Amino acid sequence: MHRPAYPRWMKCVEDTGDFFEPTLAALFVHEAFSPSTQSAAMDLFTAIKDALITRLRRIPWMDEETQKKAQDRVTQLQVKMGGPEWAMDPALARQEYSDVHLGPNFLQSFLSGIRSRQSRIVQSSLRPFPQLRWQVAPWGVNAYYSIADHMLVFPAGLLQPPFFHPDYPRAVNFGAAGSIMARELLHIFDQLLLPGGCPACDTHALKEALLCLEHHYAAFPLYGVTSFNSSHTVLENAADIGGLAIALQAYNKMLLWHRGETTLPKLGLTPQQLFFRSYAQVMCRELITQDSQDTHSPPVLRVHGPLSNIPAFARHFYCPRGALLNPSKRCQLW
């Protein structure tokens, strides 16, 4: 008997999530994102944000005025975690799906759900500020930066194991969730990296840094990837490399303030090794196909590219000089 490629139960779960997201959002956030988890996640984000602000003061290709404006943009940023505020209000949530009618069979329930969802999309587009609605479900794992709102969103699904947990060693949280937070913060400044995006900056130094980044990624062999176009991934590569460097800077500062660090003895890793391994584990995944329009590099490059650009990684893992993960030249963009 041929086994379906897409299980029926998965479709049912996804359809339920699509049709009843307002009420499921509150249930998921209340169950999986406690106030203590949110507080710990916000503390982590604050440490990452402070590290970025410090780093912005010594970006070589930025002029002093641009550095000041960049610091102000980070300071003025809105941050949302967990789920949308409106979804946490039971009355408002019920209104969102009051027009969904279940039964007497799956087809009629499905069609009712489709009509309700389409109606919500239309109503959302007609509201004065439709961009205020979250672009991801609370159980999703994709953080994003909203240019219109100057707001970073971290759904509750991202702030769960294996990305984050209040009881994890700090090395794990900084290496995994911390690097993701730093990467999303850097997307605030994507415009500066584009041609003509920063007229007052040292454009020669910026171009040199971006060219270095391109050569850095080109040094890694790719197997089984035929449609990869490095020109589409520059901004994401820059955010990946900068995000890891900022997370490491924040982690090292934390170690100065907190004596002692929890380790995982069965792994036999030092705290610094655990930091880098945590980053690699959340970035590494199996590559099935690489969309030619994907703005991210293949997973292997998202692991090797940033790790090899950090001298501390080679030092803590004893990589021989000249190896792929310990090159003689590194790039300094962020």
TrEMBL record:
Species per Swiss-Prot/TrEMBL record: Pipistrellus nathusii
**Gene3D superfamilies found in the cross-reference section:** Collagenase (Catalytic Domain), Neutral endopeptidase , domain2
Entry's PANTHER family? KELL BLOOD GROUP GLYCOPROTEIN, ZINC METALLOPROTEASE FAMILY M13 NEPRILYSIN-RELATED
Q: What is the lineage of its organism?
A: Eukaryota, Metazoa, Chordata, Craniata, Vertebrata
Protein name, entry field = Kell blood group glycoprotein
Membrane spanning segments where?
none
Q: Which residues form the Peptidase M13 N-terminal domain?
A: 5-84
Q: Does the keyword Mitochondrion apply?
A: no
Identify the cofactor(s): Zn(2+)
Keywords tagged on the record: Hydrolase, Metal-binding, Metalloprotease, Protease, Zinc
Which InterPro entries does the protein's record reference?
A: MetalloPept_cat_dom_sf, Peptidase_M13, Peptidase_M13_C, Peptidase_M13_dom_2, Peptidase_M13_N
| Superkingdom of source | Eukaryota
**SUPFAM superfamilies per the UniProt record, alphabetical:** Metalloproteases ('zincins'), catalytic domain (SSF55486)
Q: Which residues form the Peptidase M13 C-terminal domain?
A: 142-333
